[in-house]
């Protein structure tokens, strides 16, 4: 049984979100007594976040469900620097226009998961370029730099691991933790934000912000991190064989998003239901106890619940219907990824790669040689096979049992 008195920490604990807290007792007391504004920061390096970011977004959702205020901080400023955490190379620089476009696109995902508005517990989105872009270099050094020692900065994993691998780290990137710490201090002073949350790899950066607020303003603020979310096979969340699993439909079709969750390892189903859905804990306990082929019922429930949250109810229904029709009836559901071809047709290997089923033509050849590729149920092994269709015709392309697409003329 949890010993927490606040709804916030009790729910986060029960559903498996808590890895580290700077002052669990203090945060619990604060959250039990009044509204606690809390934030998570997201850099805008692409037009969409991916499922590796979803646990942090769900933290903000849980915060709002418990009666507190979520603050989404988009890193319009820090995106220009680059977080060195877990990286071996310098981040590519984006133009101001590209960053603004990315932020606008990313916001659409948050609008499905959080309630935005002007109320005391309504979510708000802010851009750290609005304040980081205004502070001068000398001012930053004088006000903030004096509270950071290079000795301490070198001890953080984001820096230490990079140096141990003898990978270059620019002075620009070395400043990232200072800017993130300043973000927390600014948000506390201007918006009363008292909590920063994030993944376990952000612990050092979060602690910096907590200490900076205490040293500069004498303010008590809190930090909380989630465990590193990996799948049962040890791979990080956010990636699939064919690339990143994006939250936005423009970057990944609804069916592929649904199928990612449907293909969850048996061992991960219960944990992912707790982290990524609003399903009651007793129902999750029932589903994760299923064995044998029945566990597929839990996987479909997971895929439906996450897709409905992130993409909408219609997307979940259509994807499930497509999967059912594809697997059960051999049909071609309307939500399958599609490849349009001209009168000259397309080579089978090129089709596999263009659809993202294989990463290269070489991999496509190997899959064909293994007998894993079918057109309308017929196995194709010749990498030179040309798929041609009459106008208006379509064919179903399958790679193994789980990847299916429509080729249309």
Automatic annotation (TrEMBL):
ATP binds at residue 239. Its main location: cytoplasm. A motif ('KMSKS' region) lies at residues 236-240. Signal peptide: none annotated. One of its GO terms (cellular component) is cytosol. A motif ('HIGH' region) lies at residues 44-53. PROSITE patterns: S4 (PS50889). Keywords: Aminoacyl-tRNA synthetase, ATP-binding, Cytoplasm, Ligase, Nucleotide-binding, Protein biosynthesis, RNA-binding. HAMAP family: Tyr_tRNA_synth_type1. This is Tyrosine--tRNA ligase. It comes from Qipengyuania pelagi.
């Amino acid at each position: 049984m949890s010993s927490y008195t606040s709804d916030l920490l009790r729910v986060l604990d029960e559903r498996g979100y808590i890895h580290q807290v700077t002052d669990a007792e203090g945060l619990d007391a604060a959250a039990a007594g009044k509204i606690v504004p809390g934030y998570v920061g997201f850099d805008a390096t692409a037009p969409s976040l991916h499922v590796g970011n979803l646990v942090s977004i769900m933290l903000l959702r849980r915060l709002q469900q418990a009666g507190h205020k979520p603050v989404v901080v988009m890193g319009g400023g820090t995106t220009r620097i680059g977080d060195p955490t877990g990286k071996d190379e310098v981040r590519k620089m984006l133009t101001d226009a590209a960053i603004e476009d990315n932020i606008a696109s990313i916001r659409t995902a948050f609008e499905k998961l959080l309630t935005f508005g002007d109320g005391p517990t309504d979510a708000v989105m802010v851009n750290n370029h609005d304040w980081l872009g205004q502070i001068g270099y000398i001012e930053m050094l004088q006000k903030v730099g004096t509270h950071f020692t290079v000795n301490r900065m070198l001890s953080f994993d984001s820096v230490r691991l990079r140096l141990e691998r003898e990978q270059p780290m620019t002075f620009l990137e070395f400043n990232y933790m200072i800017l993130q710490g300043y973000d927390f201090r600014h948000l506390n002073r201007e918006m009363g934000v008292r909590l920063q949350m994030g993944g376990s790899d952000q612990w050092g950066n979060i602690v910096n912000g907590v200490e900076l607020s205490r040293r500069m303003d004498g303010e008590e603020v809190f930090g909380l991190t989630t465990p590193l979310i990996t799948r049962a096979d040890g791979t990080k969340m956010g990636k699939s064989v064919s690339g990143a699993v994006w939250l936005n439909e423009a970057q990944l079709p609804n069916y592929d998003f649904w199928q990612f969750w449907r293909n969850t390892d048996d061992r991960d189903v219960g944990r992912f239901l707790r982290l990524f859905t609003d399903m009651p804990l007793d129902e999750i306990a029932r589903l994760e106890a299923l064995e044998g082929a029945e566990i597929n019922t839990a996987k479909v429930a997971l895929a439906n619940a996450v897709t409905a949250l992130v993409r909408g109810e219609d997307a979940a229904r259509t994807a499930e219907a497509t999967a059912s029709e594809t697997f059960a009836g051999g049909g071609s559901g309307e939500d399958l990824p599609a490849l349009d071809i001209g009168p000259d047709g397309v080579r089978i290997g090129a089709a596999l790669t263009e659809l993202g089923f294989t990463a290269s033509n070489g991999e496509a050849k190997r899959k064909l040689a293994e007998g894993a590729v079918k057109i309308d149920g017929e196995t194709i092994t010749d990498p030179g096979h040309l798929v041609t269709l009459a106008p208006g015709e379509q064919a179903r392309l399958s790679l193994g049992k789980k990847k299916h697409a429509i080729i249309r003329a």
